[in-house]
């Protein structure tokens, strides 16, 4: 019976099967053609090679399988057609962009911080070594004088041994003697004698030249400086002492019994990765020792070394980051000296940075704005440092900040640092509350237009009123002003600009509101629910209006921190937390799995500072572990003193004891509509009324549109509906109100007003 279409190969006009392989010319190892008899099933279960690939030399191998040629050792034959035929190979990239070259300038020399850190490390190390050995100079001198005579004797003995050539072919002569091969031994001994004759000749010649030189100096009475013999003796003495000392007794002491810094090497990294308990790494390296590779050389990077590591297939960098403690243990280094993080490229690429010393012993540089300088909230300013001690700048305008962490993690210091930075911009208005009640933010109170501290209901109530005022009054007014200035071409992106913020009377100056331990507000049984809802709305709306919220909390869960807030805050800092849930509540879902884990940081306590100030920062460049500058209370007072002087000069210093919110400007919408109503018109479109209202009171109605007017008239009982008119013979319909409807609402309001 002829083969079915499914059993025979598809053959085009040229007779070659469409699968691209000519079965007629197949080699024996490629199995049978598709229309041949199937192989014996019993034989197909034959033995396999040790690497899991069927052995082609065994009868009954699985001849119908296809294998990737790259997965088979070079000395083994592949079974089945190659997956990557030679004709499809991509030639190597010979262009300039395809070549990987070593950098002309080392990475640590490219930045000022890197150069400064490297030079400082060299200077500290050299100063320490110099001081260590200087103190021990008397001891070294005594050892030198003791071993120098021994060195003279051992030197003479060594020269004599060299001249006799006893060490020349000694092993070969001994081997001949052991084999009782007299002829070979005599030949080797004659060779030794020839070596000895020319060596004795050289030694005799040098001795004669030395003696002749000394005799000439004595006979000719050459004026040799008295210090010259002593200089020669001083130069020879250390050399003779080195030759005369025992091998296990060096003249100088070791600076330390363990390396001051363990240089990062590929072998050290591989051994550490194999010791952290990831089975996929161990299994991959057991099969291929090159499963862990390094796409670039290990190099200096700031005060440490950086290794970029490509992990084995299927292993993510986040898996290694999660075992930071084991990694540090495997490298025999303190935890805060080892900083692994995911590297750009692919999920399996790891950036491992190891410092010269632990971060807890590394002195964080002083805040650059501590002694002088000002801040423009529309530009970035220094706020963090990397483990390499490089300064990281951050933005404040158009951003809201959320800082979370357990007690002792340093979140209060970071939030206060942000407030101090905002105080150095005299345009910025500061309002805030601290619900801890210990006065952490008391130092900034003089520059605050509103401030409160405590956990009592009155303080929490005033903070809730601040959030309510922000949304219902301040944001609405700012939105109207933005729309007004946008119409004038001064706010092209419908956002606050530096020019508008500096414009007096614009009402669009930066407004910075800070809430420390905000969970106390959101968990309050009376004010919490509304405050959380309004705070989320302010975060969404106020970002473009110059309203900046700075929040910190130590209880990042859905009850104390509404999820809508964490989703919409665009700058987040997660300091030390206990678990994955808290980590992702602050940084966002999936950040823990991606390898950004603040659980590796230890909070400070009575025993030490721990990792206080360190955190995972999202929203300032790529997510990374950064440390905030530390400014204590005394230093904060210095900053506030400068901020007060700047605000007094700019006329923006809030008056003492008047920390209140400005009342919204009073206006009567119904009376204003009656005042600007078009004469002899029974109905008017909203768009026309908004234009006239803006001309009447720009600060209030500036930027109003038809929707805003409709929303404002609804609680006043004025019905808004479609009104049609003919313009140039065409009928147009717009939303508007009738004069009779406006008159009715005014009459009802006047009738309901109480009389004196």
Describe the structure.
The chain is α/β, with parallel strands linked by helices and 756 residues long. The chain folds into five domains: 23-86, no CATH class; 137-244, no CATH class; 273-361, Threonyl-tRNA Synthetase, Chain A, domain 2 (2-Layer Sandwich); 392-650, Rossmann fold; 669-752, Nucleotidyltransferase, domain 5 (2-Layer Sandwich), CATH 3.30.420. It is built from 22 helices and 17 strands. It has helices spanning 112-135, 137-164, 170-178, 182-219, 227-244, 266-273, 279-287, 317-321, 324-330, 411-423, 457-487, 498-502, 519-522, 528-542, 563-568, 580-587, 633-650, 669-676, 686-696, 698-701, 706-713, 739-752, and strands at residues 299-300, 304-310, 338-342, 349-355, 381-385, 391-394, 401-404, 429-434, 448-453, 511-516, 547-553, 571-574, 614-619, 621-628, 683-685, 721-727, 730-738. The strands form three sheets. A ten-stranded mixed beta sheet has the order 6-5-14-13-12-7-11-10-8-9, with helices on both faces. Strands 1-2-4-3 form a four-stranded antiparallel beta sheet. A three-stranded antiparallel beta sheet has the order 15-17-16. The longest helix has 38 residues, at 182-219. It starts with 111 loop residues before the first helix and ends with a helix. The relative contact order is 0.06.
